[in-house]
Give the backbone structure.
Amino acid sequence: MAKFKHYYLIRIAYLGYRLHGWQKQPDVKTVHLMIDRTLRFVFENDEFKTLGASRTDAMVSASDSAFELFINQELPENFEEKFQWNLPPDIYFKSIEKVDQKFNIIQSVSVKTYRYFFCFGEKPNPLTASFMAWYPEVWDLELLEKGIKLFEGTHNFKSFCTQPKEGIEFIRTIEKAELHKNDKLTANFIPEESYYIEFISKGFVRNQVRLMVGALYLLSIQRLSLQNLEKALVEHYDFNNQLIIAHASGLHLTAVEFGDE
């Protein structure tokens, strides 16, 4: 790998509904692929590299994500305008700042905030499908709030991870887990009764948020007990293949903060 001379932290937002997540994959459109394709056009022949702060799944959106740009040349004066206008319409450039060589976009993350937007009961306008999950069953919100609070603190999240890599650390701390009535996504087609669950942590294991929401869904329709949910946070718990991964479109990465911010 070339030794690059300039380093930049770039913040973006994107609607993930038609994209296959962050990570590059063969023959599909991903956020990382579209970012690099746009930068290749902007820089023409200049060599560069990009590294993301978070790998979101297919159909997951982000109102605040970030990646690091490594490049040998100073950025052209019209970089921001040219980058913005050549990105696809579902990816938006927010800001850029220069960082030094010591900055590490993976290790420097101090906090990530995810929100899971959902509604239930009557089927909503189909325009909501790109950024909000719908469940036909009525959820018990009082039971849901009790379940959400179980996730706060330090726990073993082995039961809430898919295809873990060797040596991964399952002991994680969730600083905050709360249920809110939705006042963040607003439009005339958004259901009046809609909600989001907010999770704040330094880091999450693979599919952790969607598996936690899947467990809360089962709890809220009384197909999972509070006792078994609590047990799953202490040791690996066999859900008898009952646990589901919640719909991806409801999940939004809403903040990535770094240690020096």
